Known about the structure:
Layout: E1 3-21, E2 27-45, E3 50-56, H1 69-81, E4 87-93, H2 103-118, H3 125-135, H4 139-144, E5 147-151, E6 156-159, E7 166-171, H5 179-193, H6 204-212, H7 215-221, E8 223-224, H8 227-233, H9 237-246, E9 251-254, E10 261-265, H10 268-280, E11 288-292, E12 298-299
Parallel strand pairs: 1-8, 3-4
Antiparallel strand pairs: 1-2, 1-12, 2-4, 2-5, 5-6, 7-10, 7-11, 9-10
The structure holds adenosine-5'-triphosphate (ATP).
Amino acid sequence: MSSxxxxxxxxxxxxxxxxxxxxxxxxxxxxxxxxxxxxxxxVAKESEAITVRVNGKWSDQVPVDDSNLAIRAARALAKHAxxxxxxxxxxxxxIPVAGGMAGGSADxxxxxxxxxxxxxxxxxxxxxxxxxxxxGSDVPFSLIGGTAVGTGRGEQLSELPTGGTFHxxxxxxxxxxxxxxxxxxxxxxxQASGAEVPWPQLNDSLMEALGTGDAYALxxxxxxxxxxxxxxxxxxxxxxxxxxxxxxALGAIVSGSGPTCAFLAIDATHARDLAESLxxxxxxxxxxxxxGPVQGAVLI
Length: 300
Ligand code: ATP
């Protein structure tokens, strides 16, 4: 095999409940991931060394040194296999960078699947999931996609069957937000308020909405504990979310740690109209319609 291509989706969190700050600096989470049809492609070609190049809209914001998550994933896989391998990785990027849509994690998952194939390792998904968990808490989900509940730091995953397709609009913002800074702001706001932080609980109404494919019920149950912090850091996101609601979005939230805004639409036509209205009125610079759930990293 001289070249392999993997397609891997972005995610939105339809519930992100953040527990109190733990002594190890992490938070216990209840994190309901939902994979949506905005994709990066990872192409892996035979090569002496592991290298990466990035093409596409957001490419200038992605590092191509050893900090690139796709390189780290390929290295971790080679280490697991106990051999020295090379791969020339090309990422065709469509997922916003530092946008709260797990773009880096998607590329890591894509590189794992691509190199597993390129190098003829034939490792089962369970092994890839284990390596993925060490790379970052969102990477295992990027491998499986669909809809899933993550607990612990987000890395313990259970897949959730959904009763239909949901239609979304995503409005990426100019400039990213670092996930660490959003968690730090969340802790700061909580400390300032002095209120007790409850233990994160899975929302049963949200589960039912996902299971029955009820977009209206899903829209009214979307929640993100990081949203207040993202809005403090980027106040201009507030009017964007309001504009989506005014244009009939069933729910409007910041995606993960932001700053991408996510809007749930009634159906595919409404999603297209909503995306158009958000850009035409200047509420968002760009807006794309997408659907979910979609499968995780897949060879194409
Ligand atoms: P999450 O939703 O998992 O919190 P995110 O979508 O907000 O993550 P990413 O797009 O994963 O953020 O990028 C976070 C940072 O990771 C970027 O600022 C970038 O410097 C770095 N990074 C490393 N490798 C990649 C990659 N392959 N693609 C995108 N960013 C990468």
